[in-house]
Records
---
Amino acid sequence: MVAEATPVAADRGGARRVARWVGLVGYAVLFVWWFRRWGFPKQREEVIAWLVGALVVVAAFAPGRRVWRVLVDWIPFTLVFIAYDYSRGAADTLGMPVHVTPQITMDRWIGLGTVPSVWLQQHFLSQRSVHLWQVVPSATYLSHFVVPYAVAAWLYAGDRGRWIAYTKRFVSLSFLGVMTYILLPWAPPWMASSRGLLPPLERSVNDGWLYVHLNFARSAFNEGQATVNLTAALPSLHAAYPLMIALFFWRTSRWWARVVLAAYPLLMAFSLVFGAEHYVVDILLGWVYAVLVEVVWRRVERRRRRNLQVDGPAREAVAAPLAPSEPVA
C-alpha cells in the first residue's frame, strides 16, 4: 500500500514544484512589465505588496500552506505603515512643537564645535560634479525601503520561527520610533538649514543616481520623500533597522557575513549625515532603540526556552503511567 502511494505523492510534489516555478516566472514577467511602465516601486507599501505577492504564489502551490495565512501574517507590517503615516497628524493634534535647535547644540558638541553634516558637505560635496563614490550613500539610503522587508520575506519563505522573532523586533522598534515621533517632532539638518539656522545644506543622498543615470531611482526617492513625515527624525529608523538586522543575524553568521552586517549600519550612518537627512544624535538614539529591542526580546526568548525545558519533563512525568507497586512482604 505504501509502495503504491509513494510514486503518486512524488508526482504530486513534482507537479507542485513545476507549478510554483511557472507561477514565479510569470510573476517576474509581470514585475518587469510593471517596472517598464511605471518604474521601480516608489513606496514601502508597494515593495511589501510585491514581496507578499511572491509569497502568495509560493503558498498557492505548497502543501500545507494557505494564501489567507500569508496575508494575515503580514498585517503587522501594514500596521507599522499606518502608525507612521498618522504620526505627524497625531503630533499636531497633541500640539507638540517641532524642535529645531536642541539637536544642533548636541551635534556641535559631538562634532567638537561643528555640525557633522555641515563639515562633511563642506569637505566632500562638490557643487559642480557628482562622483562615483556618491553612488554608495545613494544605494545605501535607498536600501532602507527594501532590505528590512526583503529580509522578512526571505525568513518567511524559509523559517517561520525566525520570521516571527524578526517580526517582533521590527514591529517593536518601529512603534518605539513612531511614539517618539508623536511626542517629540524633530527637524532634520536640511530643514534647519532652510530656516537659516545652519549653513546651506543639500539633500545630497540622492545625487549618486545622477552619476549612473538611474533616473528611476532618483524619482523613487523624490516621490517617496514627498509623502513621509518630515519631522520624523528622532530616532533615525534608517539607522536603527540596519543595526537591528546585524544584531539579529550576528550569532549565526560567518566572519565574512559579520563584516557585511557591521558595515551596513556604518554606511547608513555616513549616508544619513552626509546627505543632511539626520543628525548624529538621531542615529545614536536609533542604535540605542535597536539594542534595547534586541536585549529585551532575547531575554524573553531565553526565559521561554528555559520554561519549556522545565515544563517539558514535568508534563511527561504527569502523563506517564504509574509503575505497579511492589508487593509488601
Note: The radius of gyration is 25 Å.
---
Amino acid sequence: MSKLIYLDNSATTYPKPEEVYLFMDEFYRKHGVNPGRSGFDAAIETEEIVHSTRAMLTELFNGDDPNRLTFSYNASDSLNMILQGLAEKGDHIVTTFLEHNSVLRPLHHLELDGIAEVTHIHFDKNGYVHPDDIKKAIKKNTKMVVVNHSSNVIGTIQPLEEIGKICKETGVYFIVDASQSAGAVPVDMKKMGIDVVCFTGHKCLMGPTGIGGSYVMDDVPVRYTRFGGTGVRSAVKTHLEEFPYRLECGTLNIMGVAGLNAGVRWINEQGIENLHKKEMKLWEKLKNGLQDIEGVTTYCANGTENQNPVISFNVKGFEAGDVGTILDVDYNIACRTGLHCAPKVHEGIGTIDVHGSVRLSIGPFNIENHIDEAITAVKDVAGIKN
C-alpha cells in the first residue's frame, strides 16, 4: 500500500514535528511528576515548563499575564467553562452559523435550561459574517458575542477586529473560538478586542490531543464551575478565585503541556506567516484543480485572502461518505466527510440535506505531490458517473 496522504489536518495535524515527539518522550521520562505540589527538583523543573508554556501562549495571543492562560482538555472543554461561567439568567448571546458544536451545544443547553436567549447570525455567500449584522443583533441584555475565528468546514477567517470594535463600543464580551486559527494565523487579543480566546493544542499549535485552554482578560468575570485540588492553600474550603487556579483543578496533563510547549516553539521557529503562505499555495492549487473537474462543487472557496487551507466539496451522484471511502480505500487519502460537527455551516451552504460534504485540509507537512494525487483521485471518482 502506498504511503498515507493525510489531508485531515483540521481534525488533528499529523504528523507532528519530530521535535514534539522527542521532547515529550524526554520530558516525561525525566519530569513526569506533579508540578507545583512539592519542592524537589523534578517538581520545580516541571512547573517551569508549565509556566514557560503559559508565557509562550500568552505572548502568542498578545496577553499580559501568563497566569491568565489556563489549561484544559481542549477548546470544547474551555468553551464550556467560559460560556457557563459567564452566562446568567436573562442574558442574550449572539453567535454565528459558522460555529462548531463546541459552541452550539453549550449555548443550546443554556437555552434549554432557560438561562439565556441565543441569536445566530448568518454568513454571506462567500462564507463571511458581516460585523453590521452582529451589531444589529446586540440588545440591551446581550452579555457576549461568540465567534469562530476560522471555519473548520469552509476555512473562512472572520473579521475579528471589526467585530471586536463593535463589542467594545456596546459593552459586551467578545469570546473567540480559535481552534482552527491559533498557530495558523495571528490572534492578537488587544488589536482584535478579544476578551476570551479558547484554543486547542492538537491542531495548528502542533501539540498532542488532550490539551487546550483559554486566555481571559483581566476584567472578564468568569465564574468557576469546577472545584477541586489546586496544590496551594489547601485549607480553604471553596475553590480558589485567582488565576490560573480559577479554571484549573486537579493534576494538569503534563505530557500534553510538554508537547504543546514543543509545538509552539516549533511554530515560532518556522514563523506562522511562512507556514501559512506555504499551505495556502497548496490550497490554491487544490482549489483550482477541484473546480476544473466536471461534476465537482466546492463551497465558499474563492481567493486566498482571509482563508485557511481548508476546502469542502461534493461530487455529483455521490454521497460525501462514499467519496471519502473511495479516497481512503483506493487512493490512501485521509479526509473527513459528513457535517464536521458544524451543522449550521452546512445549513448555510446547502449541504445539510445531502449529509454534508467532503473536506480536505492541508497542514505543514503536505507537499505538492499530495495535492496532485488528491486532484487526480477526485477526478477519477467524478468520472465514474459524469
Note: The chain has a mean pLDDT of 95.
---
Amino acid sequence: MRRTPITRRGLALLVAGPVLVAAGWWAGYDELVAAGVAAVVLVAASAAWLLVRPRVEIERELWPDRVAAGEVAYGRVKVRNLSSRPSAGFVAHEQFGAELLDVAVPRLPPGERVSQAYRLPTARRGVVPVGPMRIGRADPLGLVDSEQRHGDVLTLWVHPRHVDVAPQPSRFTRSLEGPSSDTSPQGSITFHAVREYVRGDDLRKVHWRSTARTGTLMVRQYVDTSLPDVTLALDSTVTGGADLLEVRLEVAASLLLASTVRHFPVRLVGTGGLDVASRGGGNSSQELLDVLAALEPDDGALADALNALSRGHGGAGLVVIASQPGAGVLDALGGMPRRFGCVTLVDVRPPSTAATVPVAVRGVGVVTCTDLGSFAAAWARQVAR
C-alpha cells in the first residue's frame, strides 16, 4: 500500500502560500506575493522529487517465531530490485508492536537481491504483531513524506522465562496392580471404585445398581495408575505488582514444562477463569507456553478458584502459585490435602519481605522465592525432602 502524505511543515506552507499571495496583492507588497508563490512551489517540487519510488520486492520472516523473554529472535527481510535502474539505498521501518525498528537496505543494482537481518526486542513477555514493513522517503526540507507498506503482519510469541526443574513429587505409589488413592488421575480404563456423582461427571459412567441401592447417584471411577498428574493454580492478578505477576508466570512455565516434557498430564487454572488441560507430550509444551504468553492480568480471586477445585476430582498433585496469600486462600488450601496427594504453595514475594516468616498450612509444602533463580533453588530443596 502506498501513500504520499504532506507533513505538518508542508501543510503549513501550502496553507500559508495562498494567504501570503492574497495579502501581498491586496496590500501591494510584491515581496509577500513572491514569498507565497515560493512556498507553494517548494511543496510542489518536494512532491515531484518523491514521484520516483523504489520498485522493490520484499519478503519477510521471523526466526524463531517463539522465544522465551530475553532470548534472541531475528527478523529477516529479502529485498529485490525490480527496476531496470540501480535502486538507491533506503531505510525500512519494521512495525514491532508500538515501536518502529530501522532496517538499513543498501544500494541495489538492477535485478539484484539482498538479505538483511535485524534483532527483535524480546525483553517483555507477550504476543507481538510484527509488520507491515514501511519503506519511506522524505524530501530534504521535510515537506512531503512518501511511504510504501509491504508484507503481512507476522506474530512473535515471547514466552515467560523458565528454568529446568523436577516435576512435583507424587506421594502416590503407582503400580500395575492398580491405584492406591481415590485422587488418582482420571481418564484411563482402569476401574478403581464406585463413588458419588460430582457435577461434570460423564453420565455414561453412572452405576445404576449402586444408585438404586444407596438412593444416591453413583458413578464408576476410572483412573490412570502410571502417570502422576499435577494441577497448577495460578494467581494471574496484579497482586504485589506487575513484576511479581511476571515471576509467577515464570514459575508456572517452569513447572508446566517439567510435566509436559516428561509426557505427564497437567492442568492449568487461573483466577480469571483460565482452565487448560493437557495429557503431556506432543505439542503441549508450546501450546501451554502460548497461553502464558497471551495471558492478561485479571481481577479474579484465587480463593474462588481453589474452592472450585475442591469440588472436583482432585489428583496426584496441586501447586498453588501466589503472592503473600490472604486468609481466604489459606483456608481453601487447608482442605486441599484431602483432594490431592501432594500440595505445594509457591509464595512469590517482593525482595523486601523475603526474610519474613513463611506461611504454614498443615499438609501443604511451602516454597518461598523472590525471582526465578531463587524459586529453582527452593524448589530443588523441596523436591529433595
Note: The CA atoms of residues 8 and 158 lie 37 Å apart.
